[in-house]
Write a structure and sequence with these properties.
alpha/beta, 185 residues, 4 helices, Rossmann fold, 9-stranded mixed β-sheet, 9 strands, globular
């Protein structure tokens, strides 16, 4: 499993910052990078220097997380040719559950999407493992459930359950959008 870092666009809203705090508590080997007013290329360079292989930029509109851009940092930083549109999110505090203080050691994807490309994207975003669940039982892990809310629109519901099958982290409605990436950052 590779390290992943989450950051925001410039001047994020409070709910977007809270969304990142919820996400890093359920995504293994994840961290938060405070971007401030720095340029994107500088931020990606700093994230890469911290040993992260993936960076996720969370943009917000009208105070809510709205759009995720994913960057591969393994060689030279480049944006992956898809984005994730957030169509709704519920923070753990909004449904009465506070996430634990540290992120789990592993996460496991259980999906009924039957779409390998979308499953790969979700797996990369939430840093899931391919280990068998029997090997994870002795460790702290989170199960990432993904299912279509509306298959025609490509609307996917994602939720997280801890090893005791209790909800943790945010609940997210998202749509994966293929996009054309321009050269350069």
């Amino acid at each position: 499993m590779r390290r992943i870092s989450f950051t925001t666009s410039r001047n994020p809203a409070k709910k977007t910052r809270s969304f990142i705090h919820d996400i890093i508590k359920v995504v293994p080997r994840s961290s938060r990078f405070t971007r401030g007013s720095s340029r994107l290329s500088y931020s990606l360079g700093m994230i890469k220097s911290q040993g992260c292989a993936t960076a996720v930029i969370i943009n917000s509109i009208k105070g809510n997380p709205n759009f995720l851009r994913i960057f591969n940092l393994v060689d030279s930083p480049h944006e992956l040719p898809y984005a994730i549109k957030i169509r709704g999110s519920t923070l753990s505090r909004e449904y009465g559950k506070q996430s634990e203080g540290r992120s789990p050691r592993f996460s496991l994807l259980i999906s009924s999407l039957n779409n390998s490309e979308e499953e790969t994207i979700i797996s990369r975003l939430f840093n899931t493992t391919t280990e068998d669940i029997s090997k994870l039982e002795k460790h702290d892990y989170v199960t990432v459930y993904a299912d279509y809310l509306d298959k025609e629109e490509g609307l996917i519901f994602v939720e997280f359950l801890d090893k005791d099958n209790q909800q943790t982290g945010p609940r997210i409605k998202l749509r994966i959008v293929p996009r054309r990436i321009e050269n350069g950052l």
